[in-house]
Protein 1
Amino acid sequence: GAVVSQHPSWVICKSGTSVKIECRSLDFQATTMFWYRQFPKQSLMLMATSNEGSKATYEQGVEKDKFLINHASLTLSTLTVTSAHPEDSSFYICSASGTSGSETQYFGPGTRLLVL
Amino acid sequence: AQRVTQPEKLLSVFKGAPVELKCNYSYSGSPELFWYVQYSRQRLQLLLRHISRESIKGFTADLNKGETSFHLKKPFAQEEDSAMYYCALNAGSARQLTFGSGTQLTVLP
């Protein structure tokens, strides 16, 4: 089946630093990747949608300068949390959908970010 | 705007009992509905989608457009079904999913 990986699985950083999270589709080409944020005991909230080779589309209320998304290839998208603050601490999950036209999204295992 | 509602945050049933996880949606067009499951310490994975009209792990879900519902059902729950279940809706060509708040199912022995 389709596999999506994320790296790192968890990261702890100091306030003010930037953190990059990678999302890779391992055995399929992902034309579209999605980034979600999940707070404890809450649902997934879509942050942005990225299509390979074009700018990401951000959901209302998500700062594009704060959460930089790059989808440079059909197998890699990155989310950079710039100048992270403690309120950015969360669980970040990516998903990817392929080129077959299927609506199915395949999810990564998530990245736990803790900003001190 | 689309919305997905899962009214039960927690649901407990005994092994062998029927289980129904409720999902209601609001969307003016023709949505595509999904159920995703997240077992403990595992990633979110697709359980089933309404257009497939299939049964996965004994679970079924029927889209009721009149009631705008997509309830997940299983006639005989098993302990391994204990997990977090999310109902999700795809309402556009961008393949974006709107998730419900999730229902934590616990199947008791």
Protein 2
Amino acid sequence: AQSVTQLDSQVPVFEEAPVELRCNYSSSVSVYLFWYVQYPNQGLQLLLKYLSGSTLVKGINGFEAEFNKSQTSFHLRKPSVHISDTAEYFCAVILDRGSTLGRLYFGRGTQLTVWP
Amino acid sequence: EAQVTQNPRYLITVTGKKLTVTCSQNMNHEYMSWYRQDPGLGLRQIYYSMNVEVTDKGDVPEGYKVSRKEKRNFPLILESPSPNQTSLYFCASSFGDNYGYTFGSGTRLTVV
């Protein structure tokens, strides 16, 4: 069973438009949640993470994400995208923090393409 | 500079010829992990290690071996590579689960 579901494999958007990349996870226990970005021919870079506390998490490059426990979602948003945001974005989750140390599950990725 | 270094970046090999992909980190991280990335499948964990001499299987360990004899190094060994192991491989390290992982630049492996 897929632990992390990224609902869109590709998201095209025009420059300066807002964007939301959707992520749902399957777990009824406590989780850690992450978003990573992968630029072409590079490794993954951490955008932001949710561990506990405030459900709205701010990350680098103007991105933010909101943890919704009831909907088991962690959607990534940016109010105004740039051409340079074109990349693949991965949602990742540790499903049961404390008892599954080191087990980081990734979604299948969402390719964000920003058009001029 | 804090980083995870993988070598080689690109490798083409033949079926059955043993190979090792090296991974080294200079951040004194305890956790290290190997992933493979395939189109449409995202990243899948091969093996992970929470400390020296402590390793465990991830989701796709078949055909791979690892060792963690030193804290900084975590090599990935393919004893008898097969074409279905053609993939992009990433090594990553972390202080712990709540810190997030730092990734290497990747190793693109082709097995013919």
